[in-house]
């Protein structure tokens, strides 16, 4: 039995069956630094996928902050400590409007679970609307929002779904069809007695394949939500913290003012931190309606890691880097499209971008199996990326924020070779 097979067998016995891994030949990682990772055989990979180490694997300032605080004190928020306050004040300063107060959690799933309860507290209703190709986490309540991973027995009746936007194929250029779908589901929830509490979405529609939507596209839907007395929950777990290059937050880029913002993955560069940001009014309603305490959420070590990560983003100009390198890399993808007809569409913003793979450009038929084969081919050639989207045919490129132009060149050159060597199959 090979080392990989033995490790997978041990993993199955210790952690249970059906635990997913990336790639047909899983990668056994043992070390990371900046935008690079190394496997157990010492092979180096260019990491073009992981947004959890947001400011780079093992950033020394984040490592130092964790070690220093862990060597001083770690407890929970029923004792007073200043670091959580320093972080929340710095975090909310990057947002606008009434978004001025926060709860820290350990995961984005917890954050979205709290957000749903906040919406229930402020509206007195339970109906929730999400897109039909979204993912917002894995608590029992949040898992109800997923159509692609439906819970046994089906979703709760207070959960409704609307079609995910598809800028490559849809004619809904101004968002009015999306808004009408939201209005129709609100009417259905009200008629069923659940009422309408919230529309929850990623403002970048990341899992839906990050469609190319202009600022203002969500305005018609927001009018519908406000008219119905509901709230908007913006899940910023993937697009936030400057990743989009032009704006610090996805909701700022698309031009909406959410009532609640949820955070996770990149928040503390891999240390388990999530969060919910909202207005003082909504926070007060939540605190009055629900007894909530999180033993580990906002502990001093987590708060120190999150604060150090935020400061690195700002001090090292990583949002500006994301804008520059992202534009440069997408230009490289567009150049590849002149030589590879399988690239139907190049899109994205900052360091969250990719290309949609098609069997031919006229029909725009998704090349799903081909896209998976390309991702595996890139892994074999030392570059880690992946794929997602409504049809699972959009390459997902989302590297750590210090990603450079030279590294973009390496990724593009490798992709050029892999596309040429991979048979185009459905």
Which key features would you list for this structure?
alpha/beta, globular, 13 helices, seven-stranded mixed beta sheet, 38% helix, four-stranded mixed beta sheet, Aspartate Aminotransferase, domain 1, 426 residues, 2 domains, Aspartate Aminotransferase, domain 2
CATH class label of the largest domain: Alpha Beta
- Based on Cα principal axes, name the global outline: globular
Give the percentage of residues in beta strands: 15-25%
What would you give as the CATH superfamily of the largest domain?
Type I PLP-dependent aspartate aminotransferase-like (Major domain)
Largest sheet: 7 strands, mixed
N/C terminus separation: 33 Å
Number of strands: 15
Instruction: Label the CATH architecture of the largest domain.
Output: 3-Layer(aba) Sandwich
Helix content: 25-40%
SSE class: alpha/beta
How many structural domains does the protein architecture include?
A: 2
Low-confidence stretches: none
Q: What's the SSE pattern? A: HEEEHHEHEHEHEHEHEEHHHEEHEEEH
Strand order of the largest sheet: 4-10-9-8-7-5-6
Radius of gyration from the alpha-carbon trace, in angstroms: 21 Å
> What is the number of helices?
13
CATH topology of the largest domain: Aspartate Aminotransferase, domain 2
């Amino acid at each position: 039995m090979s080392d990989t097979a033995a490790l997978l067998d041990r993993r199955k016995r210790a952690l249970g069956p059906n635990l997913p891994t990336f790639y047909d030949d899983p990668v056994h990682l043992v070390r990371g630094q900046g935008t690079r990772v190394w496997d157990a055989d010492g092979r180096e990979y260019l990491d073009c996928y992981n947004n959890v180490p947001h400011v780079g694997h093992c950033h020394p300032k984040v490592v130092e902050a964790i070690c220093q605080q862990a060597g001083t004190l770690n407890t929970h928020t029923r004792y007073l400590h200043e670091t959580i306050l320093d972080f929340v004040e710095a975090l909310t300063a990057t947002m606008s409007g009434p978004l001025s107060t926060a709860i820290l959690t350990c995961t984005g799933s917890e954050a979205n679970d709290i957000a749903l309860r906040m919406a229930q507290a402020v509206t007195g209703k339970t109906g929730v609307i999400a897109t039909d190709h979204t993912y917002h986490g894995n608590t029992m309540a949040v898992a109800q929002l997923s159509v692609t991973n439906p819970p046994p027995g089906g979703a709760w009746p207070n959960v409704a779904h609307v079609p995910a936007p598809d800028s490559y194929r849809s004619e809904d250029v101004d968002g009015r069809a999306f808004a009408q779908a939201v209005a129709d589901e609100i009417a259905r929830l009200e008629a069923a007695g659940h009422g309408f509490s919230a529309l929850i979405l990623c403002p970048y529609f990341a899992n839906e394949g990050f469609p190319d939507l202009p600022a203002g596209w969500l305005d018609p839907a927001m009018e519908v939500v406000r008219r119905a007395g509901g709230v908007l929950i913006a899940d910023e777990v993937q697009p936030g913290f400057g990743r989009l290059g032009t704006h610090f937050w996805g909701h700022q880029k698309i031009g909406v003012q959410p009532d609640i913002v949820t955070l996770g993955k990149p928040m503390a560069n891999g240390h388990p931190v999530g969060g919910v940001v909202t207005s003082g009014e909504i926070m007060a309603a939540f605190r009055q309606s629900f007894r909530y305490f999180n033993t580990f959420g906002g502990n001093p070590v987590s708060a120190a890691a999150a604060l150090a990560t935020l400061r690195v983003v700002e001090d090292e100009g990583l949002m500006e880097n994301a804008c520059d390198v992202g534009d440069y890399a997408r230009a490289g993808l567009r150049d590849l499209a002149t030589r590879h007809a399988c690239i139907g569409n190049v899109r994205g913003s900052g360091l969250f971008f990719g290309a949609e793979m098609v069997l031919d450009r006229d029909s725009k038929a998704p090349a799903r199996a081909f896209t998976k084969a390309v991702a595996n081919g890139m892994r074999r050639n030392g570059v880690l990326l992946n794929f997602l989207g409504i049809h699972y045919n959009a390459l997902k490129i989302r590297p750590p924020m210090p990603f450079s132009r030279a590294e973009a060149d390496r990724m593009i050159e490798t992709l050029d070779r892999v596309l040429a060597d991979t048979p185009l199959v459905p």
